[in-house]
Sequence to fold (315 residues):
Amino acid sequence: MNGGAHALLQKFDLKELIEIIERDKVTSIVLVPTMINFLIHHPDLNNHDLSSLRRITYGASPMPVELLKKSMAAFPGCEFIQGYGQTESSPLLTTLMPEDHVTEGPASVIRRLASCGRPILGVEVEVVNEAGIPVKIGEVGEVVARGPNVMMGYWKRPEETRETLRGGWLHTGDLAIVDEAGYIYLVDRKKDMIISGGENVFSTEVENVIYTHPAIREAAVIGIPDEKWGEAVSVIVTLKPGSTLSDKDLHRLLRRKTCRLQSAKIRRDSRWRTPRAAPARYSRKNCASHTGRANQDISINAWETYREVCPPEGQ
Fold:
């Protein structure tokens, strides 16, 4: 049992957050990845003493591996912990512990930075196919769970309760793979998976590739209707101040590192605001609903990727 004081913010305010950490000598904070992204890119970050921080816990949305590495480098004295779950699971299902946050060593260990960890004590978590059978290592399935923390049901929504808790398991709607050590790797929400030309494209996979480019500050990947392919992959990116990114560079990056987009063609579009859902995380649903609405008041570059035959580079 530990005792401690809480420093509460009425809303997320980056300047106030930094000032409170410094003033009150905060040792532990809980943030979503977008908040961490804002924090490590704050221009005055190095002008404040945040050395009191000992732990950063994150969750609520996927953490791109490159962003996690940058965050660990920005706060070398902190241990990082990821929590994955849902409101329906009160809320945790898995954790990625501090000892799993390593950037050196065997590839099988380093790759765990892309995972959401392993099941917490007392909770069963599996990745299953459409028939409810656990998938093989490396195969994509839906995350399901059961345990004392899982809800009894939705208030006055019996049909949705039956669908979500069918077979005695909580069906999360999250798609994932599991490795030989039991670590779970989220690849997409079931409803967010893009099916282009009959091939499954996972938003999180593409976003992780985009984040490897040094000019990228934020990225969102959604599917948009396309007459030829059924759905096309729409990539919305926010660049770091003073950075540039050409169509050709982004095209080359996606084609080189994402096998599912080998034949993608990229067209420059207009500027967009990346719509967010509280707390401070972007919403793919809102991104899709805002497609076609230009916002010229902020500096955000947008790109759309279409599954068409790409001409050789240089032409």
